[in-house]
Design goal:
five-stranded mixed beta sheet, 2 domains, globular, alpha/beta, 10 helices, Nucleotidyltransferase, domain 5
């Protein structure tokens, strides 16, 4: 039974997890910087990478202590190679390479989105073929998966990702960063009273949230000029209903066209309770969401994806480099590999 030590540092969390076998998570340590970046209304890349340098050794020590193992017990080291903030990625990569060299362990470079997808397997097996809805601060994609580690992107955002749109609307409503979870809670208390355009409501599987974000900004500015009061909970409800409708409509349509067995959801926005309720209610097939603890960035998801790669013999050389963007389809593992 393999033991995978994984490091995730693509944005503002430094996380190290140790996974034994498929689901025995020995630890999943996350050092979050959210309180620091909240002061600036968003992630500051230079601060994020500097704070990663300061805490990576402590996080590693804590992880090994909680897992009650030593580095000699580890079979391989999985590391997020991208996409993400290049400085933050670089800190994690250097830590992983140092450990791989010092302890003679194989290195596994994991695509960040593949990690989010395989967070679901920490709970139960994914049934193939499946359709994955990836929703986060930087990604909005529909991915068809014929089999394990086979990625075909059939739709993606043309501008803002869904999580980014949530945070920008949060700023308009003067909400604390990150705005997404707050809007989700407010939407539950509000009424859908404001008319907003359904973004990119076409036959494609692509998304666009820039127009919806602009519509919210225009609505609030126009109301202010007329001296009208905007009810924050109602605007949050209207925005969330419209944003989720387009996500759900296109996901269900694609699932039917591709004749998949289940829909899986991945990424930070998979924690959105409105999305969980509406997609589960409207989908004619099974929908799998990761547990709340594995929705946002964490190393457990990287360990889960890394385990599959390790078992398939897909390893990385020590000259592996980080990149702020990586093509997910290029990460597909074929039998010929």
């Amino acid at each position: 039974m393999s033991i995978i030590l994984a490091i995730e540092s693509s944005c503002d969390e430094m996380s190290i997890a140790i996974l034994k076998g498929k689901r025995e998570l020995l630890c999943n340590i996350v050092a979050s910087q959210i309180d620091t970046h909240r002061l600036f209304g968003g992630v500051v890349p230079e601060i994020a990478s500097r704070m990663h340098v300061e805490c990576v050794s402590t996080v590693l020590k804590t992880a090994l202590q909680e897992a009650k193992i030593t580095m000699e017990d580890v079979d391989a080291i999985a590391i997020t190679k991208g996409p993400g903030l290049v400085g933050s990625l670089h800190v994690g990569m250097q830590a992983a390479k140092t450990l791989a060299l010092a302890y003679h362990k194989p290195l596994i470079g994991v695509h960040h989105i593949a990690g989010h997808i395989y967070a679901n397997e920490l709970v139960e097996d994914i049934e193939y073929p499946c359709l994955c809805l990836v929703v986060s601060g930087g990604h909005s994609e529909l991915v068809y998966m014929k089999e394990a580690f086979s990625f075909e992107v059939i739709g993606q955002t043309l501008d803002d990702a869904i999580g980014e749109a949530y945070d920008k609307v949060g700023r308009v409503l003067n909400l604390p960063y990150p705005g997404g979870p707050v809007i989700d809670r407010m939407a539950k208390e509000g009424t859908h009273r404001y008319k907003l355009p359904l973004p990119l409501n076409d036959d494609s599987y692509n998304f666009s949230f820039s127009g919806l974000k602009s519509a919210v900004i225009n609505l609030t500015h126009n109301a202010a000029q007329r001296g009208e009061e905007i009810i924050p909970e109602d605007l949050a409800c209207s925005f969330q209903n419209v944003a989720l409708d387009v996500l759900i409509n296109k996901t269900i349509k694609a699932a039917s066209e591709y004749n998949v067995k289940e829909i899986i959801v991945a990424g930070g926005v998979s924690a959105n309770r409105g999305l969980r309720e509406k997609l589960t209610e409207r989908s004619p097939i099974k929908v799998l969401f990761p547990p709340m603890a594995y929705c946002t960035d964490n190393a457990a998801m990287i360990a889960s994806a890394g385990r599959i790669m390790f078992e398939k013999g897909v390893l990385s050389e020590l000259d592996l480099s980080v990149k702020p963007s990586f093509d997910l389809e290029g990460e597909s593992i074929h039998e010929s590999n």
